[in-house]
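How it folds
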Amino acid sequence: MNILVSDKLSENGLKVLKEVKDFKVDVNTGLTPEQLVKVIKDYDALIVRSATKVTREVIEAAGNLKVIGRAGVGLDNVDLAAATQKGIIVMNTPAGNTMSTAEHTMSMILSLSRNIPQANASMQKGEWNRSKFMGVEVYNKVLGVVGFGRIGSEVAKRALSFGMKILAYDPFLSKQVAESLGVEIVELKDLFKRSDYISVHTPLTEETKHMISTKEFALMKDGVRLVNCARGGIIDEKALVEAVKSKKVAGAAIDVFEKEPLSADSQLLQQENIVVTPHLGASTEEAQVNVAVEVAEIVRDALLGKGIRNAANYPCLEAEVYKVLEPYISLAEKLGNFCGQLAVGRIETVNISYGGEIATYELSPLTMAAVRGVLFPILQETVNFINATSLASGRGITIKESRLSKEQEFVTLVELEIKTDKETLKVSGTLSANKKPRIVKINNYYVEVSPGGVMLVIHNRDLPGIIGNLGSMLAKHNINIAAMTFGRDKPGGKSISVLNIDTPVSADILKQLKKIKNILEVRAIKI
């Protein structure tokens, strides 16, 4: 498999990839989007940091691309929608630079409070102006933390050790968790009104772009100080400059900008009490190694089928959870594939139900696998785990996921019900003792089917002679039966026979099988 690393990556990370004998790793940095379009077609994976712009044009030109790995937190340089549409997994490394960014934030707060950059610049000029650089203490001040995720919470821990009081705004943070951490959870307007310092730690989205602008500055205390080590654009830079000029804001410390690199004529550089650094939040030796190794490992594991972690467009699975879910993912996909070939008519609804032990886990990966299985017979390689539900939705197929509440006959059960414009098909599956997929029910017929290879699904009347006639016909064409199972509604009634065979059957053989007495229907399925 071919891997392109288009931004500078620590040698520790490259080593992880190069140790896999089936990987060919090319390091080609400084590519423009136009240049990337020309070279991307032959690569299975792309690893970037923040410099490479993975545009829709790049993604559309990628013929083999399966994975995009971003060594860092944000994904604003990757067209996530285009990647998802094409079925490309996009992963990042949100934890690798947590400590680095949290420490940089605290450095910015302290530098801002004690005028350290300005005092250093003055000293280097040979000046000694103690009175000019009078600072303020952070002790007993109120720090408002906007976004209380990994980095925001680490900043709060460090600020608490300085004796600061913490207000936190985060829509997903419960009061119980906040109280256990020694912080007060508040609404955003309240945070703006009460804080002496405000530090933002949210991603840049349509909702957070310019979430702090002229109107928000008006709510704040006179002399408030702001810090942004998260994403450029969260704070409106023009509004910030005006607020600093008017002394509404006593100072700001900014590490990320709306347009990077920051222009030399930017107004942010003209304000003495705005401290700026060139996107250094993750720039520590430890963070660079951490994110490089992490992105290399998650890309490696994804390509080798060992699990998907930190994906922005695929449910994140820890390695231990993946070990549990992997056989069920296989089961769900094979059930879907079986149903997709067996169902008659245009598929309208796919209902997927889970019962028993598996129902306690995150079900999205299983549902994606099942839908991929359903669509695969028609769409083939164009459908995968990432785009399956999107493709189904685009085709007017409704996907429903549920947990079975009543006690089941099996310890764990995955049940697919497909409704078409002609029929309703229901197939249930579980795992055998050795974790192999098994189909245990087709509509109302109990069976014991190993879903794999070439299979014949036969509807027949439950009368003597069927097995012998089937065996004779297949033997005539040198087709060996590997396994056979039967299910019936009642003695002498209708029944179903499922055969695992060693070789495919032609359309002509299928016609001959259908002519056997008491056989009602024959379908060939390949998984």
In short: The longest strand covers residues 347-356. The domain at 2-94+287-303 is CATH 3.40.50.720 (Rossmann fold). The chain has a mean pLDDT of 91.
